[in-house]
Fold each of these.
Amino acid sequence: MDTAAQLAGTNDGDLLPEESDSLSEESAGELRTMTVGSAQHGVRIDRALVELVPELSRSYLQQLLGQGLVSHQGKPALKASAKVKAGDQLLLEIRPTLQSQAFRPEPMAIDVVYEDAHLLVVNKPAGLVVHPAPGNWSGTLLNGLLARDDKALTVPRAGIVHRLDKDTSGLMVVARDRATMDALVALIADRQVKRQYVALAHGAWSGPATRSVNAPIGRDPRNRLRMAVVDLAVHPGKAARTDVRWLEGSGQGCWVQCTLHTGRTHQIRVHMASLKHPLVGDTLYGGAPLEAMQRQALHAYRLAFAHPMTGQALEFHAPVPEDMRQALAVWGLGYNAP
């Protein structure tokens, strides 16, 4: 399994899971012939396919293997673990499904904060889905990246190495080549990519101005649509840490800065709710809308890391969006908006 796939997860800071619809066995698809290169010599055939057809997800390619739609040296490839050699011929039949048709260029306006030959940093608006998935097979950031940059076709998931929830706004880094993608994934895994958010939450703040929430997160055993702080001795989950710093407050709510040390599903939203400070607009975790703030009031305003190819220290900031500024004004906050 490639490094990027190992870090897959539906969360504030990591890759999306690979999801796919069932394949239609009745419809014929595109036939694609490929020659195994030296880079794939001696690797498993499923791994080789991921590298040779980066625009399709690993899970989708595994389904093609399982249905006998991959041939190796003129014979059906029956085992994903079979090894390939440089010069081997592979024949792949790509059956049309919602997923296989999702990885198509779709021109859209993308707010690019920084760009060089290796990567770009984008400021994602609220409401934009990052990666195609059931219910959102088109109109995603990935589709826009494919339309914007021919190099996006050469890397898995158009170079997306971490994500933001649909209704979370702010900064993301995207790789433009495979070496940069692998290096960025390693930086994220090593917690060398600094990600800071601002959030508006319900409830007057009390206690110390800075808190470190070190509480594991897993699927909520009472509601499978939510995540929750869990006891790992009883329920499955993963360690999660968020540092929260109070910036401003009123009797109705608080304006806070959140620093991620891990990237679990809905991590900041879950940890803030566990502190009895659900985010404004986050109805899934106990919040309520406020004026224009109809989504969770969470914005990734700062992103900092060492450039994976040059070593240059990079730091970016994204201004607080207008809907969040309006909500802050209702409670007389926002003087400390970054």
Amino acid sequence: MRGVSSVEDTVRVVIAEDSVLLREGLTRLLTDRGHEVVAGVGDADALIKVIGELNDAGELPDVVVADVRMPPTHTDEGVRASIRLRRAYPDLGVLVLSQYVEEQYATELLAGSSRGIGYLLKDRVAEVREFVDAVVRVAEGGTALDPEVVAQLLGRSRKQDVLDRLTPREREVLGLMAEGRTNSAVARQLVVSDGAVEKHVSNIFLKLGLSPSDGDHRRVLAVLTYLNS
């Protein structure tokens, strides 16, 4: 079971995906890289049940990877089950996969917790390493948001006053932070120095009212404050 701030090298995963081929494919990707898929299910009810059983046995996994659309209606069962699990098990990481951005549910999922959340678009999960890294990052309590998800959620928020507090460059940095990038990765993307990024991040924390007492989760809190204000 996951600790407060870190996991062992092996991440324990439950996969919820109604396509048997995709479920087996994701299982193979993860197990080939040393992670443990403790269960694979094909619908939201089975997901809720297996997580409950694992929790009762003291074996809550580190992260759930769930499709947004699952039986019986193939609309939003998967993401609604993910939101329910986040409320019931705050230490459980949740990474949802979708064909498109469900803004309402994405916002609700993000608002439910300040750690261990991911939302990726299936057609953008082209790089195996990036996908596995996202699973591990969410298991460790971080975020993994698809750039398109960030763009749509930030675009919807642009009419709100909180954006007036940030410069265009700070908004750009925050968008990259929301994708789960480190300061060094942000610096490489923007072709600036690490020090410049650190200064932007400090300004973002200050403008969003996040004090040093919020600890290592200030990055995630900054993203959530921005997207849900």
